[in-house]
């Protein structure tokens, strides 16, 4: 009896924390979504009116499109680049300077995304920025970066990827380091090329870490807020306004907490479905 | 403010005064959280009277003695912006007398223009902008006239007011009943056409170089509209920039008088258990001497009329512009209850227009959402 209770007792503090800070607010948010809810006025139950208003609005479609586009631009590139960096770190092993290099790659991770935004706003400045200076130096015209409705999302994606490479690379490096070297030895003896070793040994045995990185990055990008809020305020003309930015604006700018809650519920369900599908598609049993 | 509160604290022994700085981009969220929770709402807060007094109904009406005092002593041109139905709810933090024309005198001279003769009409403004802009391979490298095209939507709406009013437009009806026929009126369309043309037809203004504040102080803009505080800002942050300030030009509908979307003032929380004490604080710091001291410290204009006779005003670069604004009196007043939301929607529409979207169609599309908020404010 005591043995059966022990795991639950050990889990209890964490469960209490998650319940208090996540489950209860989520349920409360769900309740709010059925009300005309204001800071000051008495809430009025309006059934599904908030859902109908939000889901049929052009603004909702626009922010969902922006958010999904940002995710599609960021996640594949972030994962691929992080994997390449991790493999590079693995090759370096503990050679001289490798720890410094790892620290440099990890440095952006410890900075807040808001700080990252402010730095990159200057890098992207049309007149004084490093980005256009580099392009001009290569004989190319400067780009509009954050000031263009078509370039703003790719520009933000670059900022995000830069900020996340280090973290993802560390996770993937840990996975690569854990792969038994005898597999590669056996493959080399069998005449496998490096690409074949990567495809048939590294990738399958790195499956868990890759799925973790992909899932975390998908969740992070779908919830993106700090980057567009600090760098572009959702502009130009709403081209970089994300779903979470809209949660903020509906609540704090428009005092429409019910509609803000609809965005939260929609985002939550969307992330659950997408990450569930991704895990179904990507998780592999490595014993196969 | 902390220093000026010493007298107040001496009178109210045992009281502690906590002054909290809230960054502009956090105030909406922090105020909303404070007022929703009740217990953590401030006793006194800086905000905009229409929204907090009329919309959210969290601001208290000033007591009778302050109504009389402020009616008598504070600048009349901007008074309606701090009142609701003629009653004061808000003590002005500074008198931002609306936009003035800031122009770089070195750039004027280099372009063959006389710095003593700034543009006095909008047509002249356009011609000057064409001479002052630097364009290379179709790309604007220096704004002839800097336009606010991005950032907080309310700011975009606010900076477009001179253009809108110069051409006889308005944001919504004086009785706040509708935006139809006002926001999408011929006057508003013409004012916004002027702005859009500066960018997309004349090619003398850029929507990529950065904000007017930044570009003017960086030497990337020759002219811009900004409020009086900008003079102090330039002097402090860009002392190398030689500039002058002029009243903004006259349009086909006449001189666009003082009209504010940002009307920041001190208000008292109507539900504060210390309301009387809060008003007493405002009585203590709200005097001509403190007003002038704060104005000089911040580079603002004072809010007490008598302080406009002080040499501090006469020696300011915007003295002429200020006198013009005070003489002309108040322009259209925008004090709808949900001003925050309405101005945001208007700013979003103006942003689209400045990026090149069709003017009338964009304004027509914005009208229903704005009317929604106008109706809500009447409930």
How would you concisely characterize the structure shown here?
The complex is a heterodimer of chains A (288) and B (379). Chain A is mainly alpha-helical. Chain A has helices at residues 2-32, 49-55, 58-92, 98-110, 113-123, 130-137, 152-177, 181-189, 194-205, 207-222, 226-231, 243-253, 257-282, and strands at 35-36, 44-45.
Q: Would you kindly provide a written description of the structure presented here, covering whatever features stand out?
A:
The complex is a heterodimer of chains A (288) and B (379). With 288 residues, chain A is mainly alpha-helical. Helices cover 73% and strands 1% of the residues of chain A. Chain A has helices at 2-32, 49-55, 58-92, 98-110, 113-123, 130-137, 152-177, 181-189, 194-205, 207-222, 226-231, 243-253, 257-282; strands at 35-36, 44-45. In chain A, strands 1-2 form a two-stranded antiparallel sheet. In chain A, β1 (35-36) and β2 form a beta hairpin. Chain B starts with 5 loop residues before the first helix and ends with a helix. Chain B folds into two domains: 6-96 and 260-328, Periplasmic binding protein-like II (D-Maltodextrin-Binding Protein, domain 2, 3-Layer(aba) Sandwich), CATH 3.40.190.10; 100-257 and 336-378, Periplasmic binding protein-like II (D-Maltodextrin-Binding Protein, domain 2), CATH 3.40.190.10. Chain B has 379 residues and is mainly α. In chain B, the strands form four sheets. Chain B has a three-stranded antiparallel beta sheet with strand order 1-10-4. The mean pLDDT of chain B is 90.
The CATH class of chain A is identified as Mainly Alpha
**CATH-level-4 superfamily name of chain A:** MetI-like
The proportion of residues forming helix of chain A, as a percent range, comes to over 70%
Biggest beta-sheet profile of chain A:
2 strands, antiparallel
CATH class type of the largest domain in chain B: Alpha Beta
- The order of strands across the largest sheet of chain A is 1-2
Largest sheet strand order of chain B: 1-10-4
Elements of chain A, N to C (H/E) = HEEHHHHHHHHHHHH
Q: Over the alpha carbons, how many angstroms does the gyration radius of chain A reach?
A: 23 Å
How many individual helices of chain A? 13
Number of domain modules of chain A: 1
CATH level 3 topology of the largest domain in chain B: D-Maltodextrin-Binding Protein, domain 2
Cα Rg of chain B: 21 Å
Query: Whole-number average pLDDT of chain B?
Result: 90
